[in-house]
Design brief:
Two copies of one chain form a homodimer. The first copy, chain A, is of the alpha/beta class. Chain A is 33% helix and 25% strand. The first copy, chain A, is built from ten helices and 16 strands. Chain A has a six-stranded mixed β-sheet, sandwiched between helices. In chain A, strands 11-10-9-14-12-13 form a six-stranded mixed β-sheet. Chain A has a two-stranded antiparallel ribbon with strand order 1-2. The radius of gyration of chain A is 21 Å and the shape is globular.
Chain lengths: 366, 366
């Protein structure tokens, strides 16, 4: 321990920034593999296009907008999403076959501009209208609404569905005020598969809303993450603490406590999700155990194990389980659990094929 | 900084273990979402089977062995792999259609037992023989060899191919002595797809060896990882240091230096991989940019961007790029770059469909 104390005393903040080593929390340093932090987003996006140019491409003259390389809107509603960077695979990872058609990308943890949303929508618009499908945050809502107004002046009609699945942020009676978190994956999966079947905008909006309403997510954070531009942690958390219900940008959760076991954390979260969705014996759900960034996949499966044991005891059926990093917060340690209450219609589109560079599912019929 | 020093002085090792908070390196603490550390592997495996029982199942009476739920060996060679835990998706993540057929799982960073390898092989063996395909480590080699001898006593014939792609660990002239690292993904992908076409064992071995010979990987480590059982870091690295060439268990690399930019690290690695594979103008490669565990996907794409720029300058063609966590070391920060030199045969099987819970690829023909 002595060596640590001596090393720390020698350091100044300037040294960290020079060496690309940043303080992440009171007692942790993480390092980033980056170039100029100001180019973090533009270089990430360029890397994605270079790696996956067969599936994704930049919008003409706006390198904050991406669309499917095979986008076809002549016979389907186009789904446009967007949000801040730092959450890969959310949001742009869900642009592809059976998912969304285009995405407007903001800076780290920052809403995309109304102009970029407009540019993406203009590039995609066919004769069948547009659905804006995104997570419920104030800045995103404002900019998507401004873009919708701009599009209406061009006689393009837009419907919007905001995903608001974070149970910690508002009660069920006010569920549309909740923050949008990892559950948006299910909204992309189901709405995207549904829209591939050439349904009208009104129907596409209906299934997106139905999915959103049947979602419930809660997370646990064990560490903050480091913002590339500032090199600073986005919140403080003690070295043996966890926060249940914390949002993906460090928004306050329900309570802080000394870190508990995986089983205790899982029970704590599932008690709330079960109540929130009013789940009863023999209901069926899809499960997502999502990693926040630096929590190993092994630990996520230890959580998935307890999710199965818990729901089995309650005789809730698990139709499908997804485990992995679906919506992250840079290098934050932690995870979230999402339940989606299913019916036959939702199952049908959950099972359909999807193909983006970040999420692939082989269709059931195969 | 003052608060940090005070907090550290208050802590003792006992406190960390009690609270599931472990020291990871001189100046870093990470926390784990686990139950009893002794059950880390068994609970991870149980979680995987509960989540993906439609695709994977335990070997009868050996819960350290997993096989494909749809394993068919009557008309194909069975591919058996194995290795230590803590590297997900390696190794068990590559058991599925178009990949391996079964896996023997060891404890964290520890070889699987010869008995488990034998049990997996016995469960899979059809009339067409077995290929053992695994990473080149002493303990793994010893136990796979013992299992092969046990199988020969049962009149089951086994061929073995060890993947040894870590350029930092031996010169090209001694490439079979290298450690096996993330490049094994390509060996699974290509050998698995090839074996689906009902080729004889001799041919399956040939394509596995051809893939292995054309692989070159080098990594960079920025932090150590925390072993769940001991709660201790597996090596020490300074708070502003990186180690180029470090192995996935902390084996020594080529040099340590203050952390450089993403572009500098990429160039440092690619200079060595280019020379190692004797790549020339107009050669074609597949690229894997692999994250070690806690490095965000955004940073991996910043590396992928520079890989594309570098190889374009050298007029090396990039046939396909994979970016993500393909072989990890728990929560280690860092990444590796793998190049696979391609010909038409390797491309054909690289493009084929694959479907495991951890890696999916939609076939090209679709």
């Amino acid at each position: 321990m002595q060596k640590l104390l001596i090393n720390l005393k020698k350091l100044s903040v300037g040294q960290f920034i020079l060496s690309h080593t940043f303080i992440t929390q009171e007692v942790g340093f993480l390092k980033k593999i980056i170039n100029n932090p100001m180019n973090f987003v533009s270089e990430t996006l360029e890397g994605i296009i270079l790696a996956h140019g067969d599936q994704l491409q930049f919008v003409k003259e706006d390198r904050n907008g991406l669309v499917r390389a095979d986008a076809r809107t002549s016979d389907k509603v186009a789904i446009v999403t967007g949000g801040g960077s730092g959450h890969l695979p959310v949001f742009l990872g869900y642009v592809g076959k059976g998912l969304a058609d285009g995405v407007a990308v903001g800076n780290v943890f920052t809403s995309p501009s109304a102009d970029t949303i407009y540019n993406v929508a203009k590039e995609l618009n066919g004769e069948n209208g547009l659905l804006f499908l995104y997570g419920n945050y104030f800045g995103d809502g404002m900019n998507f609404d401004v873009a919708a107004e701009m599009l209406e002046e061009d006689d393009i009609y837009v419907e919007s569905v905001r995903v608001s699945d974070d149970v910690a942020s508002a009660p069920r009676s006010d569920w549309k005020k909740r923050r949008g978190v990892a559950g948006i994956f299910f909204a992309y999966k189901i709405t995207g598969a549904f829209s591939e079947t050439s349904q009208p905008l009104k129907e596409v909006k209906r299934i997106a809303e139905k999915t959103a309403e049947n979602l419930a997510t809660m997370g646990v954070a064990l560490s903050s993450c480091t913002l590339p531009a500032s090199g600073e942690p986005n919140f403080q958390i003690g070295e043996n603490e966890m926060e249940i219900g914390m949002g993906i940008h460090g928004e306050p959760g329900i309570f802080r406590a000394p870190l508990r076991t995986a089983n205790e954390i899982t029970t704590e979260i599932l008690d709330r999700l079960m109540a929130d969705l009013s789940l009863h014996k023999d209901d069926e759900v899809a499960v997502l155990v999502n990693g926040s960034g630096s929590t190993p996949l092994e630990e996520l499966y230890i959580v998935a194990r307890e999710v199965h044991h818990y729901l089995e005891k309650q005789t809730i059926g698990i139709y499908k389980t997804y485990v992995g990093e679906y919506a992250t917060s840079l290098d934050m340690a932690g995870c979230s659990i999402t339940l989606l209450k299913l019916d036959d219609e939702l199952k049908l589109y959950l099972d359909a094929e999807a193909d983006s560079p970040f999420f692939k599912q082989i269709g059931r019929s195969k």
